[in-house]
Amino acid sequence: GENVEQHPSTLSVQEGDSAVIKCTYSDSASNYFPWYKQELGKRPQLIIDIRSNVGEKKDQRIAVTLNKTAKHFSLHITETQPEDSAVYFCAAAKTSYDKVIFGPGTSLSVIP
Amino acid sequence: EPEVTQTPSHQVTQMGQEVILRCVPISNHLYFYWYRQILGQKVEFLVSFYNNEISEKSEIFDDQFSVERPDGSNFTLKIRSTKLEDSAMYFCASRPLQGARYNEQFFGPGTRLTVL
């Protein structure tokens, strides 16, 4: 089955700097890659997603890139703010209605 | 904005007891899911449910687990005989069939299950 790896496990950045989280997946049949943000004690919330027919997608300060050949995808957060501090999970699914396989998470701390 | 709701928020039970975790998905959603998250670990898929039947289940979802949609609004997860290792946060999620956000699985706030 699908396996999603994620690096780094923890990331600490100064406010205003950029943060990059990288993920790999194993199943070439995966075509949908959502990213979730989970604040402490709260539910995972979708922040951005990308499909395999697109190489890059941007939404304000957040961008995702996908390299389907290499089975890599990344999350880029620019101009980080303290409220960006949370655990970020990358994930993969065959389609957007299939089960979502989560990566192990990255704990991002943005230092004011 | 409509949200998935779950009850109870926290359930404490003795090992070997049965528990039922309840979820109310968003009203026009047709795909339902259960996930669990052991403290400090990643979110793990348990089961998906569509058209009143299980679509897919993981290895975690063994004979001790069952799901049901007893009426038009509730979606339940039952664990027949709880084990210590069932202690986790259980998230319900639902997804619409169509619409602008049909990609998105909307997660509930979770039920924290503690098995003693």
Largest sheet of chain B: 7 strands, mixed
How much helicity do the residues of chain B have? under 10%
Global structural class of chain A: mainly beta
Largest sheet of chain A: 6 strands, mixed
Indicate the radius of gyration of chain B in whole angstroms. Answer: 14 Å
- The H/E string of chain A reads EEEEEEEEEEE
**What is the β-strand count of chain B?**
11
Oligomer: heterodimer
SSE string of chain B: EEEEEEEEEEE
Quick one: how many beta strands of chain A?
11
The N- to C-terminal Cα distance of chain B equals 37 Å
Number of helices of chain A: 0
Shape of chain A: globular
What gyration radius of chain A follows from the Cα positions, in whole Å? Answer: 13 Å
How far is it from the N-terminal to the C-terminal residue of chain A, by CA? 41 Å
Q: What is the residue-averaged pLDDT of chain A?
A: 94
Low-confidence blocks of residues of chain A: none
Give the amount of beta strand of chain A, in percent. Answer: over 45%
Largest contact between chains: A-B, 20 and 21 residues
Overall form of chain B = globular
The low-confidence parts of chain B are: none
What's the topology here?
The complex is a heterodimer of chains A (112) and B (116).
Chain A: E1 4-7, E2 10-14, E3 19-25, E4 32-38, E5 45-51, E6 56-59, E7 62-67, E8 72-77, E9 86-92, E10 101-102, E11 106-111
Parallel strand pairs in A: 2-11
Antiparallel strand pairs in A: 1-3, 3-8, 4-5, 4-9, 6-7, 7-8, 9-10, 9-11
Chain B: E1 5-7, E2 10-13, E3 19-24, E4 29-37, E5 43-50, E6 53-57, E7 65-68, E8 75-79, E9 88-96, E10 106-107, E11 111-115
Parallel strand pairs in B: 2-11
Antiparallel strand pairs in B: 1-3, 3-8, 4-5, 4-9, 5-6, 7-8, 9-10, 9-11
